[in-house]
From TrEMBL:
NCBIfam families membership: ribofla_fusion
Domain NADAR per the UniProt entry, residue ranges: 12-150
Catalyzed chemical reaction(s): 5-amino-6-(5-phospho-D-ribosylamino)uracil + H2O = 5,6-diaminouracil + D-ribose 5-phosphate; 2,5-diamino-6-hydroxy-4-(5-phosphoribosylamino)-pyrimidine + H2O = 2,5,6-triamino-4-hydroxypyrimidine + D-ribose 5-phosphate
Pfam families, per database record: NADAR (PF08719)
InterPro entries the record matches: NADAR, YbiA-like_sf
Protein name: NADAR domain-containing protein
CDD domains: NADAR
Superkingdom: Bacteria
Amino acid sequence: MPLFPPDNDTAMYFSMDDPNQLVSRLANFPFLLDDEVWQSVEHYYQANKFIKPNYQTKIRLAVTSERARKLGQTWLQRKRPDFKQVRATLMTRAVYTQCRTHAELAERLLATGEQDLVESSQYDYFWGCGRDRRGHNQFGQVLMNVRAKLNSERSEAV
């Protein structure tokens, strides 16, 4: 077995942290989910790490997605015990809802066709592909699952 997986020439590599790429979790495209308005996927994801509603609100009201991320990285607040089990579901719900709210995001995602979508973080082995491309690429999986759902809904509407 080779040390590195073979290159996937058909894959689209992107960074989920770049607000100008594809469907970024940092991009400011507000959406309504769980009876609250969220400025970005990052706001929703970070707030849902925590148990205390007042801390969730603080994150939801953060001025930027970068500030929401910073607030979400604290060790001073108690996190929900099931967070690792539900984090991909939370991300999927937020990305899907944001795409349903903003047609231009859905179109960007649908325009990728059947390409594999790979989050190119070299340090994140859960959300990204990691330095050696052996990561789980969960954010890429989230995007491909949302794309499949949007395609399915589009087909049913015809």
